[in-house]
């Protein structure tokens, strides 16, 4: 397990350094994995199987946490924000598809038929739920109407990402495999499974969590068993483990103690996701990157950090949001998503993407995260300076009433 030890030591150092310059953990892990390409020790096959299982656990727990963010009642009440979310995803898919078709026709990247175009467009549409939630919490805006609108959009995107993952598949002992079934049949399955998850969450799950919430160890074991068991049942019945993980979180979202559950599973989620992104970085074929691929990477990054925020802000204003809130709404989602990279890796191993398309999506996602993090720092500093000036102005007026 020397490879795993070296990987985590490198990741620890890079995460510490990247946080000092305002960069997210995911970027540090991918860069760390890339650096490990130059001195990576060999990994025995049985250890590789264990690492794949840990990666799968991390991604499934990431989906469980995403499902726990669901507020079904609020989503049904806030139909206007749901409409905005649907429009944003629709426009994002259109823009992503146009870029993919154009880049493919010029020979910059290659995708497999309409399925490849759809997955590439989806990758270019998604925003990072983790970074958005972290930004909202740092500004104390998560519980505001504006913050709830953003979270509802993230929820909608997560649902679309889960459906996308279901069509491609998650990593397993034998690699990635394409899921069976048409998208329409999968959607009907997803709707039916969601209704079942909501019913379980409102009845059985609330009572179970209430009885075991004081026993931290038992609570963790139950949640892991619930998520893994549901995933196993899904696999045996021909359903997707990614959807099962998300719906396991949806069922848990109805308990008033879901924050305690998140605290318990967060370390395991971080552990698995860190392994996933380290090994994603370690398999990036950056050495095969040609000059002709720089153009689609640049264009995809511009689409994510500039075009998509502008169109989203315009749609927000069109649905009645105040201009200032609409601008903030667009800027908040101006980064790639961790799910985009998971989807791209899945599509690459399922032969839906070639190496160039995989590189374009991952590199554009990473670059957009870097740029959006710095933009977030600039706006946060301006906000603090504005509050300081406002306080100074109030103090001056209090000291001199004539002012």
Short description:
Helices cover 78% and strands 0% of the residues. The protein is mainly α. It has one domain (44-399): Na+/H+ antiporter like fold (Up-down Bundle), CATH 1.20.1530.
Order of helices and strands: HHHHHHHHHHHHHHHH
Anisotropy-based shape: globular
In round numbers, the mean pLDDT is 78
Structure summary, number of beta strands: 0
* Low-pLDDT stretches: 42-46, 171-180, 387-403
What profile does the largest beta sheet have?
none
Give a written overview of the molecule.
The chain has 403 residues and is an all-alpha fold. It has one domain: Na+/H+ antiporter like fold (Up-down Bundle), CATH 1.20.1530.20. Helices cover 78% and strands 0% of the residues. Residues 42-46, 171-180 and 387-403 have low confidence and may be disordered.
